[in-house]
Design a protein that fits this description.
heterodimer, A: alpha/beta, Rossmann fold, nine-stranded mixed β-sheet, 8 helices, 11 strands, B: 386 residues, alpha+beta, Butyryl-Coa Dehydrogenase, subunit A, domain 1, Butyryl-CoA Dehydrogenase, subunit A, domain 2, Butyryl-CoA Dehydrogenase, subunit A, domain 3, 3 domains, four-stranded mixed β-sheet, 16% strand, binds flavin-adenine dinucleotide, ETF_beta_N (chain A), electron transport (chain A), Electron transfer flavoprotein subunit beta (chain A), ETF_b (chain A)
Chain lengths: 261, 386
């Protein structure tokens, strides 16, 4: 039986306007609808596929405020079996290193994990480093940017796709994988799944339960301090190419000048 | 006592179907509609989500939900497209529910699992070329043949939804099976599997609306099915399907509310983009008032169907409330479709904009599953008027 833990983050809906708090430049999570990050739905889907192909249990792990339970319920209604929710005021403003430590601490509370599946990049923070940091802390292989994943026994094979091309990776469990948009199309929860999710166990933990030093967490524990933030400038007018019969050439010259081709 | 908030699971379902309709149906359905093509892939996806099994118990392959869950799903589907919504509506409320409510254990085990997953579609044949409102005027006849083993069915049915798709599994037909002691017709319901010899499906109609849904005329010519295919009690067919129609009215009301809401959705977006005489048209009070009226209609109609569904689920009589909900919501759908196409100007008359499709799809809501006149007759009768 494979014990799979899926890392799920609740993020502001990308369709709504996203803002930073003026006082501390953290993300203003109240101003936008909070949803499960779509990439994490794909991570859940991949875990469910493994479970359905053989034997396994899928645990959802989420670090986030109380209202992140909605994201957890969505993952449970898709078919995950149980959840661990780390919620603590002390986490507000934590940076990626701190988040990775908290996740690692929480994994210690899940009875023997074999495989951790994360998204490759969260749509709000867009750090794209949590999975790697986590693998480092846990001392297990990291197989990031997976666009395809297969598990044979305890051997994990991954097609890792980046701008540089596709690399075939192989590792033994336990391991951390992060998936890209191409991995799968997540299912929609059924009503049966929605009803069942209400009864699935969600363990709520605080920082004190994890054995992580609270001093390393939160805004004050972050390695960098944000001094200033400004909205991104409005988009500049585009470049206009008049076509006097040599339009094609001009477009190519422009693109070459921008080092785009 | 008065609390109109949806329970968490209803809200989660509504949201899920909303997301599905917006991302999987909205981008593609216009093309199916113009080509008058049945969207098998969308139906398969809705089946995977369990939408065809919402009110059916899990032991028969359903989702273990209830009729209100079905209504919420229909509203969200119809908000984007009515053809898709009515495929589910007819498949569940007319196809699966008669079997679920009145079938024998064996009939339920045979038909419900595939109907609930959408792998098979069910249909209900009541209306005949000679009349739909007066269901008692049924001319289709079924007689038990000499050795008592089979029903022999003769007659025809018109406008039957879901009756001729590649995945149609079974059509429940009403037929005269004898004469009652009082001299009246004995009407019963009989299950006819698709492909039964003697059962022919005419080519699809060319319709004004619901163009991505499947509607056919059916002919029964010495069509033979085993006597066990009788659905429910002999001679109770009429009474039993009246209950099915009462429920179906609430479902059609939900579908109508969805269409009416879809009109508001489309207009809110359009009036913020379209300019005339130097302003966004949404800045003109004449437009704002139209949209305010549209919103008021859809809101009132929604409350009407929520309340009818609440009474149904509590097991209370809901005939009048169902008729009111259907009457009010089909009116709202027609009125909103007219206003929405007006707000869209010439684009409202173009097939590529959803509001034109809503306009064409709205009309049938005043006719199908009981015309508005029939709803008024029911309301009047419930008020004791004779
Ligand atoms: C220097 C610095 C300062 C920051 N300061 C702040 C701040 O003041 N306030 C603030 O709100 N944010 C701050 N952040 C962002 C915050 O650290 C990140 O939101 C958080 O650490 C996760 O990083 P990410 O979203 O970029 O994750 P990514 O690495 O992009 O996420 C990849 C995957 O990791 C998993 N994952 C990520 N986060 C979680 C989680 N919480 N629970 C479960 N799984 C998860 C998911 O599977 C996700 O798909 C800061 C980041 C940096 C680098
Ligand atoms: C696209 C589509 C799908 C359909 N799907 C199905 C289906 O799946 N199964 C099924 O069985 N049927 C189906 N129908 C049929 C539909 O239910 C009937 O069309 C409807 O019930 C009306 O019946 P009718 O067309 O025979 O009209 P009629 O009964 O002939 O009515 C004609 C007009 O007379 C009015 N009228 C009738 N009696 C009275 C009265 N006493 N007082 C005042 N006015 C009266 C009616 O309101 C109507 O305006 C469908 C129809 C369409 C168009």
């Amino acid at each position: 039986m494979t014990n799979i833990v899926v890392l799920v983050k609740q993020v502001p809906d990308t369709y709504s306007e996203r803002k930073l708090n003026e006082s501390d430049h953290t993300l203003d999570r109240e101003s936008a609808d909070a949803v499960i990050d779509e990439i994490n739905e794909r991570a859940v889907e991949e875990a469910l596929k493994i479970k359905e192909a053989g034997e396994g249990e899928v645990t959802v792990l989420c670090v986030g405020p109380d209202r992140a339970t909605d994201a957890i319920r969505k993952a449970l209604s898709m078919g995950a079996d149980k959840a661990v929710h780390v919620s603590d005021e002390a986490l507000q403003g934590s940076d990626m290193v701190a988040t990775a430590k908290v996740i690692a601490g929480a994994l210690g509370k899940v009875d023997g994990y074999d495989l951790v599946i994360a998204g490759n990049e969260a749509s709000d923070g867009r750090g794209g480093a949590i999975p790697a940091m986590l693998a480092e802390i846990l001392g297990v292989p990291q197989l990031t940017h997976a666009r395809e994943l297969s598990l044979e026994g305890t051997t994990l094979k991954v097609d890792r796709e980046t701008e540089d091309g596709v690399t075939h990776l192989e590792a033994n469990l336990p391991a951390v994988v992060s998936v890209t948009e191409k991995i799968n199309e997540p299912r929609y929860p059924s009503f049966k799944g929605i009803m069942a999710a209400k009864k699935k166990p969600v363990e709520t933990l605080t920082v004190a339960d994890l054995g992580v030093d609270a001093g390393e967490l939160g805004l004050s524990g972050a390695a960098a301090t944000v001094l200033e933030a400004a909205p991104k400038p409005p988009r500049a007018a585009g470049e206009r190419v008049e076509d006097d019969g040599d339009g094609g050439t001009k477009v190519v010259e422009y693109l070459a000048g921008q080092k785009l081709i | 006592m008065i609390d109109f908030r949806l329970d968490d699971e209803y809200e989660a379902l509504r949201k899920t179907v909303h997301d599905f309709a917006q991302s999987e149906v909205k981008p593609v359905i216009g093309d199916f509609y113009i080509r008058e093509e049945f969207p098998y892939e969308i139906v398969a996806k809705m089946g995977e989500m369990g939408l065809f099994g919402l009110p059916v118990a899990e032991e028969y392959g359903g989702m273990g939900g209830d009729y209100f869950a079905l209504c919420l799903a229909l509203e969200e589907l119809a908000r984007v497209d009515s053809s898709v919504a009515v495929t589910v509506e007819a498949g569940v409320s007319l196809g699966a529910m008669p079997i679920y409510r009145f079938g024998t254990e064996e009939q339920k085990r045979r038909w419900l699992p595939s109907l609930c997953t959408g792998e098979a579609l069910g249909a209900f044949g009541l209306t005949e070329p000679g009349g739909g409102s007066d269901a008692g005027a049924t001319k289709t006849r079924a007689t038990v043949d000499g050795d008592g083993a089979e029903w022999v069915i003769n007659g025809s049915k018109s406008f039957i939804t879901n009756s001729g798709t590649d995945i149609t599994g079974v059509v429940t037909v009403t037929a005269v099976t004898g004469t009652k002691p009082d001299g009246g017709k004995e009407i019963s319901a009989i299950l006819v599997p698709a492909g039964t010899p003697g059962f022919t499906v005419a080519p699809k109609y060319s319709k004004v609306g619901w163009n991505a849904s499947d509607t056919h005329e059916l002919a029964f010519d010495d069509c033979r099915v085993p006597v066990e295919n009788l659905l429910g009690e002999r001679g109770r067919g009429y009474a039993q399907f009246l209950r099915i129609l009462d429920e179906g009215r609430v479902a059609i009301a939900a579908l109508s509310v969805g269409l009416a809401q879809g009109c508001v959705d489309e207009c809110l977006q359009y009036v913020g983009e379209r300019e005339a005489f130097g302003n966004k048209i949404g800045a003109y009070q004449a437009i704002q008032f139209k949209i305010a009226d549209m919103e008021a209609r859809v809101h009132s109609a929604r409350l009407a169907y929520y309340q009818a569904a609440a009474k149904m689920l509590r097991g209370e009589p809901f005939k009048k409330e169902a008729a009111i909900a259907k009457l009010a919501s089909s009116n709202a759908a027609m009125d909103n479709a007219r206003d929405a196409t007006q707000i869209f100007g010439g684009y409202g008359f173009m097939n590529e904009f959803p509001v034109g499709r809503f306009y064409r799809d709205a009309k049938i809501l005043e006719v199908g599953e009981g015309t508005s006149e029939v709803q008024r007759m029911l309301i009047a009768r419930e008020l004791g008027l004779k």
